[in-house]
Amino acid sequence: MKKKTGLLGLAILTSIFLLDGCAAFDTTTNSEQNDTEEKKTNTVQTLKDEKKKQDIEQSLDLKNNSDQAWSYSKDEDGWVLSIVTVVTNPEIEEQQGVSVCVPGAYVTGIDTNSDGKADITEKNYSDTVKGTLVIDHEAKITSTNGQVYTADEAPVILNTGAAGYGSAKNTAASTMYAKEGYINVACGNRGKQDTATNEAGEEYYTGDAPLCLVDQKNAARYVKYNILLGNLPGNVDYFVSTGGSGGGAHATMFVATSNHSDYYDYEIEAGAVGVYENSDGSYATTVTIDGKEQKLSDGAWGCIAYSAITSLEEADAAMAFEYFMDTTYEFSTPFQSQLAEYLSKSYMEYINGQDLSVSEAEVGFDLNDDGDKKDNVKLTIQYDLDKYPETNGYYGSYLDLYLAEFTENLQWYLDNLDYTQDWTWFNESGEALSNEEVSAMSTTDRATAFIEGRYTKSTATEKVEGGMAGPPAGELPTEMMGDGGPPNSSEVGTPDAGTSQSVSGGVDSTEYATYEEMLAAYKADITEIEKGDKYGNNLVDLYNPLNYIGKKGTENPTWSKIIMGASEGDMSLFSSLNLQLAWLDAGVASTIEWQWDGGHVPSEILGDSFSLFVDQMYGEYTEKGKKIDKTTAEKQGENGSESTATGTDISSWVNYDDANQVSFTLADIAAYRTTKASKAIPGFDVIDYGQEDYVFGSTTKDARHWNRTLLDIFEENSEKLAPLFNKSE
After folding, report:
1. Sign (positive or negative) of CA dihedral 23, 26, 32, 34
2. How far is CA 22 from CA 14, 36, 362, 548, 576, in A?
3. Whole-model pTM?
4. For all residues of the chain together, what is the average pLDDT?
5. What is the largest CA-CA distance in the chain?
6. d(CA 301, CA 308)
7. 3-class DSSP state for residue 641?
8. What's 474's DSSP letter?
9. What is the pLDDT of residues 251-281, one digit of tens each?
């Protein structure tokens, strides 16, 4: 749970990596540098179309938008901007817009006649009013955690929707952060399986990678541009991306790819502000403000991502590896079991090929068990079935780090149980404790009861002031679902079939009768993708954040946080660990939280909140911020009203002789992780086309296979896999 900062010391041993400035986990393989290194950003060269730049900037200047309107919430003291389009050439306008909520304290009122004075204020407001904001630059807001903000220094929260990598219609921004002093931004985005009509009247597929991410980048450009113009309050240097599940993936990709030129062509195509092509093919990324050119970036300062479903490129192997380490896990079919074995070996080779190492002092763990935290430890996965049969032969320092993170996260949870409110606690006989007994519980008592599952959490969604309300475990918030419906609402073979393929089912495919037919489809799809899109890019590479973290051309953020449910089955926890390693190697402060008993898209709990973390980052990494501490817990004095304990008993997995220093084995944690496993193998590039396969479609084909690792395994092991395909026994 503790935040890791500084360079982690991932040793990139080859000189080519040092010269290129790539972060660890750089897996780009297509003539990768593409035009990226050749078409460098350049603001000195002559613009290819100066008039186009002028037209875009004039059109996207909010004060020139006669349709902009503002509504006021008295209860939340927030002004909300009507939805406005953020580009000049939208493909699907209802998905390429933005709305902004501004705290009332920053607003003198609305200027309705362009004289610069407030005509409508919160005192005489009655209905939505057209006009421009009159900003109070002297006003201050003290957040619920005690941080102080002004209109010019306020963080800007960019909500990345894209649940299931799907489209999101434009919606009005929420007022939830007004009391915290943040500017809140809601943006739409195109997504998988969207369609549009060309000039010939023909319908085509659109919204695939990277357009969902591009639309979010374009929204950020629009808001930043209007902040620089003085049309909106906020600080362009303090953007925070946030989202859950597929939205969490995009929040992560947004910050990981900050202002990288690989996305400029797509932004230019849409008519985004602040990114233009020069006559020599390079790019200009400035806007004209008061007659002077100012740099405009589509990047972010920080990120808080919930259950980030990224990176997809390693997701199949990482999840199979987690499953395979549990010797008690039963795969649905012999084919999936054998494939998991091959994927596990592939994941070991992938990790070992990164030449990773870690400073024990940086992560705070004694990984080599020599009694100190002074060493630099090489991170590897090793295999010896005779010595480590309990994990199907796998062990190593990389897995020691994984285990240490799990241990630390559980210990943090136990140490913070004094923050519980409205939980119902039970004794060993299953009887609810009296109020007096609850009041007398020590931290150790609560920890023991939690481990033994003798509790029921509050039926109300836990929400600390300023935090993001969390959904029930395993469910996605309605506002994050987009048009595709809830996850798991359809069968495999549709774009909204959950995060990926369900673990249930006795056959490997209903679409392909033979292994050879399936293999041919994979090969054709992947060959097509690897040829590149109209800009020469491999879409899979564009959607892998590990290709961009710390890479030359990327503007690294200051900090990043990823929150995963420790028991969620939607994504391997190795993926968030790998992202943290890459962030730390790039010098970015990085935190991962694996929330015990948490499902998919968990909210902050036990005294933590979204706003607390943002306020703490502002205090630590800005000159004007102050240090913010978590408030002291007020112990629960009354028991809840539930009659039956519903907590998960994890006592069989955890050694808790000393509740202040719990421990467990790698085999134990593998078993814990698979108890709520919900994916087949492969779980992401699904054989019958699953959710993520629709992210990498084309204008004529809505879904395509994309995982080169899977294809290589299929081709290299066809003699063993083919006879098992579609065989239930």
Report:
1. negative
2. 11, 13, 21, 8, 19
3. 0.90
4. 88
5. 81
6. 18
7. coil
8. T
9. 999 999 999 999 999 999 999 999 999 999 9
